[in-house]
Structures are given as structure tokens and as C-alpha cells.
Design goal:
83 residues, alpha+beta, two-stranded parallel ribbon, two-stranded antiparallel sheet
């Protein structure tokens, strides 16, 4: 049973999804920057910016969510909107 942690959500697929989506966003900004000078990142489900999860060894781990990872996209977006 998961411990009572405020940001407890997702499973092994959540980390994989974040990795795939953020890799895609890097390609997205590189490709579209040539045509559009002002790209906006919109995250309608941004949450708190971090997540806790249970590792395979049963320990509670923490990692950045999509909201914080979006700031590491290179090249960066011109503007960020989080809901």
C-alpha cells in the first residue's frame, strides 16, 4: 500500500511517459523555432511539479514532474502557462 504522501501518483509508466513527452518537446521546439519565434508551453495538468512513487525496491522516491522538467527543454519555450 502506498504511503500517505501528498504527491503520490502514477506508476512505472509515469516516468516513461515523462521521458518520451519531454524528448518530443525538445524536437518540437527545434523544428518549430525556425518558423515561429514565440513558442508557448501550456500544461493544463501541471500539478505541484514533483511526484513521489515507490521504487522497485519498495523505497519512496521523488522526481520532477512535467512542469519542472519543461524548463529544461532546449531550446526553451518563450513562455510557460501552468494550470
Amino acid at each position: 500500500m502506498a504511503p500517505e504522501v501528498e504527491n503520490w501518483f502514477g506508476g512505472t509508466w509515469t516516468g516513461e511517459k515523462l521521458h518520451v513527452v519531454l524528448n518530443y518537446l525538445g524536437f518540437y521546439t527545434k523544428a518549430l523555432r525556425k518558423k515561429f519565434s514565440h513558442l508557448v508551453y501550456i500544461d493544463a495538468f501541471a500539478g505541484t511539479g514533483s511526484r513521489e512513487y515507490e521504487s522497485e525496491s519498495g523505497e519512496t522516491q521523488s522526481s520532477q514532474g512535467s512542469a519542472l522538467r519543461a524548463f529544461d527543454i532546449d531550446p526553451p519555450f518563450a513562455e510557460y502557462l501552468f494550470f
